[in-house]
């Protein structure tokens, strides 16, 4: 199904409904280079990249039943469904095997989520044949042809099972939690399991051939061999969710789904190697670092020797989703910290769907297709290079597509189209992420900004008590987190003088990172953006390292690595309390491979001394922020009478150019408002900045009427959307080079100055 596009990509001129469709990704290939990495010094205006496009889809009804005894007597009810059901439920597929003839072996997990409620669920793998819906039509249905029942009829197991006293000894979800599968050359199945975690070896008819292979020193709470008083190292339901095999089938690569209970790095996921000929683990392991602590590894697939695809996902579904990604790793390549280097292959939240495949099937089935299910647990690279992705639907609880209706099981085939893209001349910065759509400074907000074609994401940087940099607009966090509702932190409320102003609340510098991690983000402007309050209480406060990780592992709609644009907040204040921001900021750049002049990084500050210090510490791009009033606080602290107005005179800009590469100007510094609230005559500051060799980025462009000039307001309702695109066009025509916006999906439609 591979197709090479000859049309010119228009990632910055899309209709708003399709603005996210052209997110660029990388196709697995013998030699991989991230878009933009090979062209930093190229004179070509184009970037070669790949576009994920939905080319086929098929579903199986969530309510489908297969022959067998009733199942789900103890399953948690959901979405109007209450067990038991008169047959065997298929609660989605956690793994699949391509048979190369149009059929797949598709394996569900243990049934209904736990040992305690899955004793009536029979462990099986199903032979399925999708009748694909494609651009040319098609039924879009998955047919079940037959199944293999996993069993212990040879009495291999030495611990009790549910069907102990029967001849067939059929295995159930109370015996094992099967999650992953590969097929050996002899037709036998190797299955990754979570209760042990174990590797299970079944013959082609599903009969267990050998005792479960345990992972020494790593038991889960459900392990039947766990001794009294023994501490489980593998967290519950965090065993071998993912399993891949070497090309020749000799080695298996089971992956621990979550972090070990005793691992201080909660983002570490461990890959093991198992030798099938010897029936032992080789002792070789690799460390993979997830985008955030709660993310899990959903599946693995071998592309070629030593090169694996890994599904990384969060536990959110529908519009709450943040991470539903496929990354590629090479077991021969690790970074300076010892983690596997990972490369984005597919962001499953942004897949182009020009043919309308699956349209009308609920959330994420429009011009931009996504797989926003909680349990994205299947990835298979097909023989033509396309990717098959699929879901475990956790029947009957998941309802990502249509709230109140259980999710169907679905397979989607994604083609990675080749494109040549001419990047936009206008730099688009997701202001605190896409803060018009999600609570600011959350990974959800940053990911939404990337989906909406931001070139950079902007974290404001403050410090914790233990010196960890985190993303918050201010160090006072009562307006952006639920801290005020946490009685355990009531005693932390304080009044402090920050940059000359007395402020009462809760401050990041009074919390360790571990304490901040117990808080959840909330919308800062609930009256203005009530829709964002639906996400209150969901998301963690991210560290700067996590924001940088997300950016460097993402590709913009212009085919380049997404940049990060950190702002140091109150650096003079943080210096005064012994929590300097500069050193840990530069250390974070170094740790993420971003401390170089060509890196997609811009450091910004409202203070001057802070930027001068950073100029001596790093070669990345620096930007002086300029407000329409007042002065840099470090000037105030030093008794320097100069103001921001002095910084934007020709002489002031020439001085700025000695330590910075650009300026971030408040809108009214460039084009002031008239007494009537309309835009006035542009000032010469943009031309003066350009003459000094400085780029000009403007802030902050927002959609709501209250933030817009009078001529671009849609009504008297201050919170109603106005003509943000119209306002932006005026500033771009005046020469502004880049824009900070809370609404990247609107700002992306402005591709450059008006011609003529």
Automatic annotation (TrEMBL):
InterPro entries: GP_PDE_dom, Phytase-like_dom, PLC-like_Pdiesterase_TIM-brl, TAT_signal. Transmembrane segments: none annotated. Residues 426-751 form the GP-PDE domain. Its EC number is 3.1.4.46. GO terms for cellular component: periplasmic space. Residues 1-33 form the signal peptide. GO terms for molecular function: glycerophosphodiester phosphodiesterase activity. Coiled coil: none annotated. It comes from the Bacteria. Keywords: Glycerol metabolism, Hydrolase, Signal. One of its GO terms (biological process) is lipid metabolic process. It catalyses: a sn-glycero-3-phosphodiester + H2O = an alcohol + sn-glycerol 3-phosphate + H(+). PANTHER family: GLYCEROPHOSPHODIESTER PHOSPHODIESTERASE GDPD5-RELATED (PTHR43620:SF7), GLYCEROPHOSPHORYL DIESTER PHOSPHODIESTERASE (PTHR43620). Belongs to the glycerophosphoryl diester phosphodiesterase family. This is glycerophosphodiester phosphodiesterase.
């Amino acid at each position: 199904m591979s197709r090479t596009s000859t049309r010119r990509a228009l990632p910055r001129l899309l209709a708003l409904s399709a603005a996210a469709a052209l997110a660029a990704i990388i196709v697995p290939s013998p030699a991989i280079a991230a878009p933009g990495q090979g062209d930093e010094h190229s004179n070509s205006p184009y970037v070669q990249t790949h576009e994920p496009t939905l080319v086929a889809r098929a579903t199986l009804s969530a309510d489908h039943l297969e022959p067998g005894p009733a199942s789900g007597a103890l399953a948690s009810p959901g979405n109007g469904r209450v067990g038991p059901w008169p047959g065997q439920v298929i609660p989605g597929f956690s793994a699949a095997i391509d048979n190369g003839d149009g059929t797949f072996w598709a394996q569900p997990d243990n049934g209904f989520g736990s040992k305690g409620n899955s004793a009536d669920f029979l462990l099986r793998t199903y032979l399925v044949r999708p009748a694909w819906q494609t651009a040319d039509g098609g039924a879009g249905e998955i047919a079940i042809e037959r199944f293999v029942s996993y069993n212990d009829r040879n009495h291999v197991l030495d611990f009790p099972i549910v069907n102990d006293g029967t001849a067939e000894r059929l295995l159930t979800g109370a015996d094992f939690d099967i999650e992953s599968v590969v097929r050996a050359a002899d037709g036998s199945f190797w299955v990754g399991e979570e209760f042990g975690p174990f590797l299970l070896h079944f013959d082609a008819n599903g009969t267990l051939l050998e005792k479960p292979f345990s992972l020494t020193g790593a038991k889960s709470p459900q392990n039947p061999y766990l001794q009294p008083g023994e501490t489980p190292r593998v967290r519950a339901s965090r065993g071998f969710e993912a399993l891949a095999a070497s090309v020749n089938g000799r080695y298996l690569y089971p992956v621990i789904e979550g972090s070990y209970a005793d691992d201080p790095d909660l983002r570490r996921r461990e890959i093991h190697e198992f030798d099938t000929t010897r029936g032992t683990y080789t002792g070789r392991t690799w460390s993979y670092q997830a985008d955030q602590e709660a993310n899990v590894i959903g599946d693995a697939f071998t592309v070629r020797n030593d090169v694996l695809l890994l599904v990384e996902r969060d536990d959110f579904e529908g519009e709450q989703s943040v991470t539903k990604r496929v990354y590629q790793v090479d077991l021969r390549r690790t970074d300076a910290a010892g983690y596997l280097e990972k490369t984005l292959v597919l962001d499953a939240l942004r897949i182009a769907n020009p043919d309308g495949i699956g349209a009308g099937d609920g959330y994420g089935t429009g011009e931009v297709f996504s797989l926003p299910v909680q349990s994205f647990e299947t990835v298979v690279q097909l023989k033509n290079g396309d990717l098959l992705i699929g879901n475990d639907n956790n029947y009957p609880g998941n309802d990502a597509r249509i709230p109140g209706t259980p999710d169907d099981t679905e397979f989607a085939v994604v083609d990675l189209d080749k494109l040549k893209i001419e990047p936009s001349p206008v730099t688009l910065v997701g202001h605190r992420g896409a803060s018009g759509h999600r609570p600011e400074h959350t990974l959800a907000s940053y990911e939404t900004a990337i989906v909406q074609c931001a070139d950079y994401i902007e974290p404001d940087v403050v410090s914790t008590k233990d010196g960890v940099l985190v993303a918050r607009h201010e160090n006072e966090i009562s307006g952006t987190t639920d801290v005020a509702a946490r009685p355990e932190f009531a005693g932390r409320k304080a009044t402090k003088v920050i940059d000359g102003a007395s402020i009462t609340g809760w401050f990041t510098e009074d919390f360790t990172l571990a304490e901040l991690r117990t808080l959840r983000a909330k919308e800062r402007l609930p009256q203005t953006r009530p829709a964002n309050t639906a996400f209150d209480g969901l998301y963690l406060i991210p560290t700067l390292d996590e924001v940088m990780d997300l950016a460097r592992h993402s590709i913009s709609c212009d085919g380049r690595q997404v940049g990060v644009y950190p702002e140091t907040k109150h650096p003079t204040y943080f210096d005064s309390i012994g929590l300097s921001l500069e050193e840990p900021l530069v250390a974070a750049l170094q740790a993420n491979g971003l401390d170089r002049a060509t890196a997609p990084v811009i450091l910004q500050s409202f203070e001057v001394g802070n930027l001068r210090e950073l100029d001596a510490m790093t070669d990345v791009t620096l930007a002086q922020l300029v407000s329409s009033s007042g002065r840099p606080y470090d000037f105030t602290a030093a008794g320097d009478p100069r103001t921001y107005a002095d910084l934007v005179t020709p002489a002031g800009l020439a001085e700025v150019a000695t330590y910075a590469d650009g300026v971030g100007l408040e809108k009214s510094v460039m084009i002031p408002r008239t007494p009537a609230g309309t835009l006035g005559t542009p000032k010469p500051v943009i031309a003066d900045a350009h003459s000094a060799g400085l780029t000009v980025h403007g802030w902050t462009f927002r959609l709501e009427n209250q933030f817009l000039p009078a001529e671009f307001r849609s009504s008297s309702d201050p919170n109603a959307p106005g003509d943000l695109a119209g306002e932006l066009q005026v500033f771009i025509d005046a020469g502004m080079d880049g824009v900070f916006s809370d609404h990247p999906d609107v700002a992306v439609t402005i591709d450059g100055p008006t011609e003529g």
